Amino acid sequence: MTLLITGGTVIGPSGAVPADVLVDGETIAAIFAPGAGPAGVETLDATGKYVIPGGIDAHTHMELPFGGTAASDTFDTGTRAAAHGGTTTIIDFAVQRTGEVVQDGLAAWHTKAGGNCHIDYAFHMILGGVDDDSLKAMDQLVADEGVTSFKLFMAYPGVFYSDDGQILRAMQKARDNGAMIMMHAENGIAIDVLIQQALSRGETDPIHHGITRPEALEAEATHRAIALAEVAQDCPLYIVHLSASRALEEVAAARDAGRNVFAETCPQYLYLTLEDQLGAPGFEGAKWVCSTPLRSKHENHHRDLWKGLRSNDLAVVSTDHCPFCFKDQKELGLGDFSKIPNGIGGVEHRVDLVYQGVVDGKLSLERWVETIATTPARMFGLYPRKGVIAPGSDADIVLYDPNGRTRIGVETHHMNMDYSAYEGTRSPARWTPCCPAARSSCPAARTTAPRGAVSTCPVACRATWCDGDAYRKALHRWSLRRRQRGPAAAGLRPGHGRDPGRGGRGDRRGGTRRGAGRPRRAARVAGGVAVPPRRGDVPVPRPGRRQPQGDRVAAVVRARQDRGGRRRRGGPRAGEHRVRRGRAAPAQGRLQRAGGHRGRRVLDPAAAGRRRGHHAVQLPGDGADVDVLQRAGGRQHVRAQAQ
Ligand code: DUC
Ligand code: ZN
Ligand code: ZN
């Protein structure tokens, strides 16, 4: 069954283009110039809306046991809330606690998530104890389980903490097996001293959570993590939940030096402050206890983090979604801030909150989509299956209404929390139900649908971004492996050696990415006739110009006509040249085998356009435009939501 989304403006890495999107089954089949799509198929009117790839939240903690309790969102409630906010994939963290077997931890998280999710999901692995066994397990997870990113903690001594030697060993292992190390960068040993000193002075209020985790100790840990990654021959390093200007400077310096270092921030660090939230009267501030902590409004953290997002020193916005109810959970820390479970819930609001940056002129539309979807897909091996509106990609499509309104608050949100960290930040709006054709995939509908079996879809592409020397070094490794074991063993595909923002250094000072860095490509038309991007009905926000506040998720479309339980698992994708370019490597044979030729209907947009005498627009942004260095053999597995 096919569905044509008409009248919308597709936002891709290279800009906003009015286009119609044809969905075939669960896959984007083709993209047409407005009005040029096939007749006689079901349509979904997206006039006035942005058509964007479903959001990917690369940092969530559903059901995480923490501080004597557990995060209040289950995979059921959390993923339903995510879908309501335009996020269609999460990458959650499975946990190995100190002394546990890594594989057991992963199995436990599969049990929690299996059959309970409303959107697609994948896992990173938290290593709570680095030793010979867990190092071996890293290889196995990369090779067999589709887990290609491992999180370590420089904080939380006695719980998740790894010392420098353990970190170095894990990084060396990651360097060898092609995984990425994600780092919670705070000096937890020093923080614990400050906490004890504060408590002994009787300083027990929530604000002391922030005061005892000073910016200097985040910057120091970030610096140390970067140094250790350098010693581990430039193991790819991804700093999670970066909150502070000085930590950002460390990341920027490493990137300026051509290092393989990336970072994410989260909405709470872009909007909330130590004084206004964490310092709220009485125990109220407990609602905003999270680590890394909120920073002072008397410094320039918000400004610097937005700038980092523009310049790509911050590549991704995730949520670190780790909600706890105020009643009974946050209250565990009454009289002792160190006992307040750490975490803020926000999985439902990330897409909106980052879009607010577009409204405020701090971010371009393209950069919005990159930071919430495209770059996380690239970083964690999901691209181009996810993170882009392109032929062959999963039809995880969000229709976003720039004139809509969402009121964020406990009365309207879907997260399992008894308060909202962003209470009242928006004006009222309502979810617009999507059309009947898409209803089976509408999150609102799925909430009542029975949960079904979960299938696994191996994704062959393990992509990450490298630049400069790091890229060349990795390329060298790739060719070495090719020579040693044949091309399939390398699992690598050479790209063009750019990083995800592709803006280069000048980009850092360039305000928004618009016009910075590499030249933007116009949309191309099958048959070689260029069609410049046209301005549609949808306003394209310009930096510095205030837009009407709002935009809201109008619909999440995941066409699921393949109801018999048979999912399309890859195979050649529409746009054959791109298939060959992006997917023909022997290393990806597994995907091709899995996809086989079952029940697929490949629509070549070029041919389709020619047949009808129309132009079929092919948006830039997948294989041909993207500078991807596919790294060693890991296949990130993404689990499909219940059908
Ligand atoms: N930070 C949080 O705020 N919660 C969970 C774990 C973490 O690192
Ligand atoms: Zn963390
Ligand atoms: Zn986290």
Automatic annotation (TrEMBL):
Coiled coil, from the record: none
N6-carboxylysine sites (modified residues): 151
Post-translational modification: Carbamylation allows a single lysine to coordinate two divalent metal cations.
Cofactor: Zn(2+)
Region (Disordered): 482-601, 606-625
Domain Amidohydrolase-related: 50-402
Biased composition (Basic residues): 511-523
GO MF annotations in UniProt: hydrolase activity, acting on carbon-nitrogen (but not peptide) bonds, in cyclic amides; metal ion binding
Biased composition (Basic and acidic residues): 496-510
A GO cellular component annotation in the UniProt record: cytosol
Domain of life: Bacteria
Key words, A-Z: Hydrolase, Metal-binding
Biased composition regions of type Low complexity, renumbered to the chain: 524-533, 546-558
The family this protein is said to belong to: Belongs to the metallo-dependent hydrolases superfamily. Hydantoinase/dihydropyrimidinase family.
Protein name in UniProt: Amidohydrolase-related domain-containing protein
Organism: Phytohabitans rumicis
Organism taxonomic ancestry: Bacteria, Bacillati, Actinomycetota, Actinomycetes, Micromonosporales
